[in-house]
Amino acid sequence: MIHSVDPKDLKIGISACLLGENVRFDSSNKPSNFCIHELGNHVTYQSFCPEVAIGLPIPRPTIRQIKTNDIISVARPDGSGDVTQALAEYGKKVASLTKHLSGYVFCAKSPTCGMERVKVYSAKGNALESDGIGVFAKEIMSANPLLPCEENGRLMDPLIRENFVARVYAYKHWQNIEASGLTQHKLTTFHSQYKYTLMSHDLVAYKQLGQLLANPDLPLEVKAQTYIAGLMAALKIKATRKKHANTLSHIQGYFSKQLKSNEKQELCEQIEAYRKGLVPLVVPLTLIKHYLLHYPKDYIAKQAYLSPYPDELRLRYAY
């Protein structure tokens, strides 16, 4: 199975407060139920609190992002205790030592760990646009552009949650392929397993990446790096009901000669019910998996699309 990964081998970086560690400015934490009690059963976390790591105490005065002449610094509200450089240097250090990570969950709105929409203030203390990026988070994401990253707040959205976990498992699969020694055959096999996943996210990328792998003139390393960059970018695009329904119909085509008329009608009805929002994605997928038992199709059975992560996470029940 695509998702058969030992939790000890699948490591995700995470803001320490999200695991319940009392590292926030007021000695509190901000535990994420999903990260701790659901995803935590399938991965191993490596936690970080950049503020504590650079020597700030617990408890400590609050810090914020302050914009002065287009320069953003991180300091106390009165501008004292500037820790911008220390945070950036620590971020670079962590980024260089965590290439083994398969994902990262940041604490939302934090001046150090927020992925986006961090509140920025003027030197006089006035709130400006909430368009900042946490200094630490920025270093991690800049150094590891392929790394699936999300924030605890956004993970409350079922679609974003499912998308993040799917990207984590796809990236881990790729990391395993690279670690085993990349070959043209392995690259082609990997792509064949993610064809329907790609189709459900971005049909243009699905076609372009297939053409890329068919190019005999590109060196393997160039082809591989271009491919994985394209795949991870495509997977960031949220899959819609329309795209999923189209993908499911393509898969159904593989059974066209084997399915009985009533079976074919049932699958068509469930795909259409999903497209209309009447049932969750797990319904037509379960039916397809059922038919695979009766009419084995090795190519379809190996598709990451059918089981991109452990079924126990139940991420396809909500949309």
Q: Nutshell version of this structure?
A:
It comes from Paraglaciecola algarum. With 319 residues, the chain is an alpha/beta fold.
Overview of this protein structure:
By secondary structure, this protein is α/β, with parallel strands linked by helices. The protein has two domains: 11-156, no CATH class; 157-319, no CATH class. Helix content is 45%, strand content 9%. The strands form two sheets. It has a four-stranded parallel β-sheet. A three-stranded mixed β-sheet has the order 4-3-6, with no helix packed on it. A hairpin with a 2-residue loop joins strand 3 (64-68) and strand 4. Helix 5 (158-179) packs antiparallel against helix 9 (220-236). InterPro entries: 2-thiour_desulf, DUF1722, UCP037004.
* Cα-to-Cα separation, first versus last residue: 23 Å
Mean pLDDT: 96
Instruction: Please state roughly what percent of the residues sit in beta strands, choosing from under 5%, 5-15%, 15-25%, 25-35%, 35-45% or over 45%.
Output: 5-15%
Low-confidence stretches: none
Shape descriptor reads elongated
Protein name: DUF523 and DUF1722 domain-containing protein
Pfam family, one: 2-thiour_desulf
Domain DUF1722: 195-310
